[in-house]
Structure formats: structure tokens, C-alpha cells
Design goal:
The chain is α/β, with parallel strands linked by helices. The chain has 10 helices and 18 strands. About 30% of the residues lie in helices and about 20% in strands. The N and C termini lie far apart (about 45 Å).
Length: about 375
């Protein structure tokens, strides 16, 4: 396994392995996002193959839904002018479920949302979880494929139904959740053959959250995945849900992480759980980064934007005002954009600003994984 190293900037790269390669899974085959590209306000690398089918992808076998969407081709290196952009390999593990808003249902689950938004940013995303052998499960697989998320490791199980959550929005569009468990994602298990394929896939980033790992057997699967991919950066999106965490689980997951994202309320809750108090958010962030050796930490602040710490650099990035439809999935979009910017080696202030814009655009649309474009994010950018 080639060692994944961190350069003097925030850019991530593999020693002896040029991982700067073209996009296979971007929106419409468009390419990897670089909103700083002034000659291309949309922030996309042109792709002469736009509109053509992906090469090297196996046709979907309807008798094996857990293997649908498998892709085996190796992308080629492509540059845009003087800039060569990075398409990461992302493996996200966790819950996939249906957010139920009254009579309406929308596909979601924070780790799945992260994978979908990473794919929209042009990265090669695989998602690891399970759905039930039911109509919700079959529809989830179809929609995941439409979102350019590989479903090779999305299992179908007989014993439990596809996950669902009842969502209620307050007047500001802020959600509260009622999680219905056990669900199919609680039965996710990786075979030795799948672990070998994941090791060969060699992801640049492994993403995980908290909710899925409250089941000990599932937590063991995450451990197996991390052991199989020792060179990957470990992105932990805290996402605390009522009755779905404890201090011991949080301690374990924070120790595993190298990059972390959470919101202000979650930071306050973790401080209380550990019996700690800090005079400022910056002091709290510096403490937690030093305690666990995190490379970067982002704290979302709602309409106020975010704060971020990487190394010794601290930034506070103001938010963007949009007409909020609902905030479900906006934090997951922020997370994908934050990891994207870090991987590209942008200055931390640009990383935080871009993540704020992506999160704001998603909050202005219904559902956790709506259609959004880089043009919309670019239009928000301050002059």
C-alpha cells in the first residue's frame, strides 16, 4: 500500500502514484470542480466526452442489486490549462434511508448524502450500506446510480426494511428527526472479497458518521474498512442524533479521524459530555485538534457561516443569505465541499467560503441531495 502523505499545503497526494486524474462520475461528465477558475465561472474542467456513457462500467445485473453500478476502469490524467485538478476516490459508509416529510419521501442519510455531493463535485464515490428487499430499497439503488454513486457495496438484505426517518421542519426550515430502527443498514456486513476489492480501490478518503455505528457489529465493519484502507484520510462527520451516541462511541470515532466536521450545537454537546468548558470556539477547536491530532476541523454556524482550523491557521467565514427551503443535507453538502477544497490544496479561507456556498445552495432546495450546479455556487461568491 502506497503511503498517503500530506504536502506542505493542505493538498493530499500519494507518493509515487499520480492520483490527479479525470472525472468519471461528475455531473454530466463535466469534470472536477474548481470555482476559482476565472476563465470558467462554472468551475468545471471541460470534458470532450460529455454526454457519452461511462467506459469500463459493467451493465447492471437486476438479479444482483447489491453489485449494481460497479465500475472498474482506471481514469486517465487530464489537465486544464496550467492546472491539473484532483479527482479523489471516496468511500463513504453508513446509513441510507428515506426522509419522510408527511406524504413525501426523499432519499437521504448523512453518509449517503456526502457520497452523492462528492460525486456531484466530480469525485469517484462508492457507498457502503444495506437496503431492504422492498420497493424503497430498489428505488434507493436506482436513485443512487442516477446520482453517480457506485452501488457495488450497497447490499440488499431480507431480514429488515430499508431505513426511514420521519422529518419535521420548524418555521426556519430546521429539521427534527424520528429514526425508525432497526433498519436494513444495521445488517451491513463486508465479505473478505469485498474488503480486498476496497483495498484495491484504494480510496483517498473514507467517510463515516456516528448513527450507523451505534450497532457494535456495524462499528466492527467500519474498523475492517479502515484497516483495509490504511492510506486513506478519515473524514468524520459527527451528526449527533438523539439517543444515537454516547461518550465512549464518540471517543473511539474521534480517535479514528483525521478531518472532522460538526455544527456549533454538537461542539457544545461534546464539550459537556467530556466535562469541558472553553472561553471561545477557537479555543475549543484548538483543544480537540491537539488532543486527537486532527489535520482539519470545520464547525458550521448556520446562517453565520463556519469556522475552520487547519494546523495553526484559524478562519471564520461568513455565511450566505438564501431563501431556506429546508436544511436537510446542507451540512453534508458543506462537508463534501470542505473535503474537496482541502484535497485541492486551496487556502483555508477559500475552502471555508466554498463549503459555505455549496451548503447554502443545497439549503435553498428541497431534499438532502437535490440537483445543484457550480454556477449557482459561483453566483453567490462575493466580489
Amino acid at each position: 500500500m502506497r503511503e498517503l502523505v500530506r504536502s506542505s499545503s493542505l493538498s493530499w497526494m500519494r507518493r509515487g502514484d499520480d492520483r490527479r486524474r479525470s472525472n468519471r462520475h461528475g455531473v454530466g461528465g463535466a469534470g472536477v470542480a474548481d470555482p476559482r477558475n476565472l476563465s470558467n465561472p462554472a468551475g468545471l474542467v471541460p470534458d470532450s466526452r460529455q454526454g457519452e456513457p461511462q467506459q469500463g462500467c459493467r451493465p447492471v445485473d437486476p438479479t444482483q442489486p447489491s453489485r449494481a453500478g460497479r465500475c472498474t476502469s482506471t481514469p486517465a490524467r487530464r489537465a486544464s490549462g496550467a492546472v491539473t485538478l484532483l479527482a479523489m476516490r471516496v468511500a463513504s459508509i453508513g446509513e441510507i434511508l428515506w426522509d419522510v416529510f408527511g406524504q413525501e419521501e426523499r432519499l437521504g442519510g448523512a453518509p449517503f448524502n456526502f457520497a452523492a455531493h462528492a460525486a456531484r463535485l466530480g469525485h469517484e464515490a462508492v457507498f457502503l450500506s444495506a437496503v431492504g428487499d422492498d420497493e424503497r430499497g430498489r428505488k434507493a439503488i436506482r436513485l443512487a446510480q442516477q446520482l453517480n454513486v457506485s452501488t457495488e457495496f450497497l447490499h440488499t438484505v431480507q431480514e429488515l426494511p430499508t431505513g426511514r426517518v420521519t422529518v419535521e421542519l420548524d418555521a426556519a426550515g430546521v429539521p427534527s428527526f424520528t429514526i425508525h430502527r432497526p433498519a436494513a443498514y444495521d445488517l451491513f456486513r463486508l465479505s473478505p472479497e469485498e474488503l480486498q476489492r476496497l483495498a484495491e480501490f484504494s480510496p483517498d478518503v473514507v467517510a463515516f458518521g456516528t448513527l450507523h455505528q451505534t450497532a457494535p457489529a456495524v462499528k466492527a465493519q467500519v474498523r475492517l474498512l479502515l484497516d483495509a484502507c490504511p492510506g486513506a484520510r478519515r473524514f468524520y462527520d459527527v451528526n449527533l442524533r438523539q439517543d444515537s451516541y454516547n461518550v465512549f462511541l464518540l471517543e473511539d470515532l474521534m480517535m479514528e479521524a483525521s478531518v472532522v466536521k460538526l455544527n456549533r450545537e454538537e461542539m457544545e454537546q461534546i464539550n459537556r459530555l467530556f466535562g469541558l468548558s472553553f472561553p471561545s470556539l477557537e479555543k475549543a477547536c484548538r483543544y480537540w485538534c491537539a488532543r486527537y491530532g486532527w489535520e482539519a476541523l470545520a464547525v458550521t454556524l448556520g446562517e453565520e457561516g463556519c469556522a475552520a482550523l487547519a494546523g495553526e491557521e484559524w478562519v471564520e467565514s461568513p455565511g450566505y443569505r438564501v431563501k431556506v427551503v429546508d436544511t436537510v443535507g446542507s451540512g453534508d453538502a458543506f462537508a463534501a465541499a470542505f473535503v474537496h477544497g482541502l484535497a485541492e490544496g486551496w487556502p483555508l479561507a477559500e475552502v471555508a467560503d466554498f463549503a459555505n456556498r455549496v451548503g447554502a445552495v443545497v439549503a435553498s432546495k428541497p431534499g438532502a441531495v437535490p440537483v445543484w450546479t457550480l454556477e449557482e455556487c459561483q453566483a453567490l461568491k462575493r466580489s
